[in-house]
Specification:
This protein is α+β, with helices and mostly antiparallel strands and 255 residues long. 24% of the residues lie in helices and 20% in strands. It starts with 9 loop residues before the first helix and ends with a strand.
Length: 255
């Protein structure tokens, strides 16, 4: 007798999610809903145009360009990590008071990136479903020593010190796909839709346009949130050497 287990390729599963979740301002709604479910009270979207000075193999170039950052003041729980691991199931349908589908909705972020990574609580976590540069991804305790260079671009932002064993919040980084990385992205390689890769690249200007549109919708969106009371929009110019968060638009608050 031999094992005969059905399975589905991770990238195929993500493509199915992308077909159901639009790659427009829906991305921001999903991130806000996730933060609200985690009982965060504040959230910040940041367009970071800084190029990374990192050196390494060519595969690491997917991490080196501009990125969308997202901060909230809640900390990941073990169930949140479990939801990330199960792409086909959000894990919220049995949790009363939850407004989003964490496992499903979060994956709409793959419209713009291949390798999301974040720091939350006592861990740094790297997701690489396409096995591009960190096959299989990883999660590492902050207490085990300085985090890998993958997280260096987050140091000093939103109160994060990479030398500390714990971070009282969650800070995501979503490196934007370039035309070159989109063309080779395993997530976007759909034999039934070769045009998918053509729409997978995102420039800072395109991201700015989405943020501007969502900024006008954020006040309405917050009517459906239970915990988040303030949303900010920030920008880090390409030319700065030390991270500086400049206000991009007024904060939206719900009192």
């Amino acid at each position: 007798m031999e094992a005969f287990t059905q399975h589905m390729d991770v990238c195929t599963s993500i493509r199915h999610v992308l077909s159901e979740y639009p790659g427009d301002t829906n991305l921001f709604y999903e991130l806000l809903q996730n933060a609200d479910d985690a009982q965060a009270t504040t959230a910040t979207f940041i367009i970071d145009e800084r190029p990374s000075s990192r050196s390494g193999p060519a595969s690491d170039q997917v991490l080196s360009g501009p990125a969308l950052l997202f901060y909230d003041d809640a900390v990941f729980q073990e169930q949140d990590y479990a939801n990330l691991m199960h792409i086909g199931s959000g894990g919220k349908r049995v949790q009363h008071g939850k407004t989003g589908k964490f496992g499903l909705g979060f994956n709409s972020i793959y419209h713009i990136t291949d390798c999301p990574h974040f720091v939350s609580g006592g861990h740094c976590t790297f997701l690489d479903p396409g096995n591009i540069c960190r096959p299989g991804g990883y999660r590492r305790p902050l207490s085990s020593g300085p985090p890998p260079a993958d997280f260096q671009m987050l140091h000093g932002l939103c109160g994060l010190s990479l030398g500390a064993p714990h971070y009282s919040g969650t800070l995501f980084r979503f490196p934007l796909r370039t035309p070159a990385s989109a063309a080779s992205s395993p997530i976007l390689k759909d034999p039934h839709d070769p045009t998918l890769a053509q729409s997978g690249a995102v420039t800072p200007e395109q991201l700015q346009a989405l943020v501007t549109t969502f900024g006008g919708e954020a006040e309405c969106a917050m009517l459906f949130l239970r915990n988040v009371k303030a949303v900010e929009f920030r920008h880090i110019p390409r030319t700065v050497s030390v991270p500086q968060l400049s206000a991009q638009s007024p904060a939206v608050r719900s009192d």
